[in-house]
Every structure is written in structure tokens, then in C-alpha cells.
Design a protein that fits this description.
By secondary structure, the chain is an alpha/beta fold. Helices cover about 35% and strands about 20% of the residues. It has a single domain (about 15-140), classed as STAS domain (Transcription Regulator spoIIAA).
Length: about 140
């Protein structure tokens, strides 16, 4: 786990007291993640190819951060790269175990494409929806 600014720290379930001004952000192998002021798990894709090792390591850290409870998620797929079938299936398993609902945002065509492929091939029972911006995603999550 690399620390890239003063707010990035090792996850600890006891650190779940988040403020809007300075959320605790963690840099994992495949994404940066944090809990926002409403305890929504925010994830931001990094510019790297997902590996099973990376997503499993990030999953363990996320479980520690959220305290093994189900949460709403907002995933910023702007920088995501295409993922293979085995990785997609593992991500679905993870989503089913921790997710209440998933909102995906992206500002790039590749991010939109990867997210739409994930939606069309996914067998998860977690509600999912694509948005152009974070504000729309938050409004939708507030209805769930």
C-alpha cells in the first residue's frame, strides 16, 4: 500500500469516523478508496490492469475499512482498463458480499464501455446504474 498524500493511511475499522472536509483515503493495488460523509464506499480506478492478486488484496483492505458490513458504492471508472472474464466474475462475488447498490461514473468512453460490458454480463443481484457525474449517482443512491 503506497501513501501518496497526508490523508492516505492504512485502513482500520476503528477509523470509520469520516468528515466531509478530510475523508481518509487509501491507495490500493487497483484503486483509491474511502468512505464519504454518508458512509458510501467511494472507489476510483487506477490506470492499471486488474490482477486477481491486486483485487483480492484491495478487497481485504476494504473489508477492514467497512467493518464487514454491506455498503452503497460509487465507482469512478474513468481510468479503468478492460477486464477479463475471471476478474469480472471475482468482482461480482465481491460486490454481492459487500454491496447494497452500485453507481458507476465515468468521464471517458473507455470507462463507459467497460462499465456497460460489466452491466450486460453481470449476474449480480445488487442494483447497478451508470451516471455521467457523481451528483447524479449520489441522488440515485439516496433513493435506495
Amino acid at each position: 500500500m503506497r501513501i501518496t498524500n497526508t490523508y492516505l493511511q492504512k485502513p482500520n475499522a476503528m477509523q470509520n469516523q469520516i468528515t466531509k472536509e478530510k475523508p481518509l483515503k487509501y491507495e490500493g493495488e487497483s484503486c483509491i478508496y474511502w468512505l464519504d460523509e454518508k458512509n458510501v464506499l467511494r472507489l476510483k480506478a487506477k490506470d492499471e490492469i486488474f490482477t486477481e492478486f491486486a483485487i483480492n488484496k484491495d478487497y481485504e483492505a476494504v473489508l477492514e475499512l467497512i467493518g464487514n458490513k454491506k455498503v452503497k458504492l460509487v465507482y469512478d471508472a474513468t481510468r479503468i482498463l478492460p477486464i477479463d472474464k475471471n476478474i469480472r466474475l471475482r468482482l461480482e462475488e465481491m460486490l454481492n458480499s459487500i454491496g447494497v447498490a452500485l453507481a458507476i461514473t465515468s468521464k471517458t468512453r473507455i470507462g463507459n464501455m467497460v462499465a456497460n460490458i460489466f452491466f450486460s454480463l453481470s449476474s449480480t443481484k445488487v442494483p447497478m446504474k451508470m451516471f455521467n457525474n457523481h451528483d447524479q449517482a449520489k441522488l440515485w443512491l439516496d433513493t435506495i
